[in-house]
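Protocol step 4 of 6: structure prediction from sequence.
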Amino acid sequence: MEKVLKPMSGYLTLVICLVLFILSIYFFVNGVEQSIPFVIVSLLCFFLSCFFLKGLMIIQPNHSRILNFFGKYVGSVKENGLFFINPLYTSQKMSLRSENLQGQTLKVNDKMGNPIEIGAVIVWKVGDTYKAAYEVEKYTEYVKMQSEAAVRHLAVSFPYDNLEDEHADITLRDGGEQVNKILEQELSERLAPAGIVIQEARITHLAYASEIAGAMLQRQQATAIVAARTKIVEGAVGMVDLALKKLSENNIVELDDERKAAMVSNLMVVLCGEKAATPILNTGTLYN
């Protein structure tokens, strides 16, 4: 469990160290000329100044020191400034600043077994200095390895898109913020034992693997073409139906079933064709 300490200010101790150092010089100079006791006092003042000086520490903003006394955790200092601690304490520096982890692009299989490439950027910082220092070995390496594992697990948990899984509620391509939140939650759970706080996690690269990218692109294009054609046909049928109803309601022309079939065929060609239709003038009748 992390214990946050607030040690005493180190400015008074710094002044005392300077005074003791000056006194050591003074007694040493006078001791050489007069007597040995002055030399002993000089050495004592010098060692005391060095001893107290060892207890001084400077903590920069967004940094901390983890204090240890002969193998026992004492506490963590998170305030910045000049402080004085027990000179017998050993201290370990630790940064509390936010850091970016740009993970390498991973090649994994999605939920449907398709090989994909995925990469993420993660913003993290140390929240619990005790866990980061003593619960794991090299917390930066721990963050890197667990982040890679979380991204891999995310990739295999969802399909790339809904081409093969039409009933998928979440896909990697269309999930957006929801996928990022799921990644953040999993990272927080994995990195909690190391006292790491996840501030943000986002997918930065997502694509089919090179060996199937061409085939999947053709499949996506074919799906888009079919969807577009379906809309065109639906619209054309509605327009033909409207045209026949208007002609019938306004008594513009009476059409039998054969003429209606011919008109429907011509309208469907005009409305659904990719190129502009070329009209052909019929100077006779439909039956000749």
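Step 5 (inspection) to follow. Residues 10-93 form one domain.
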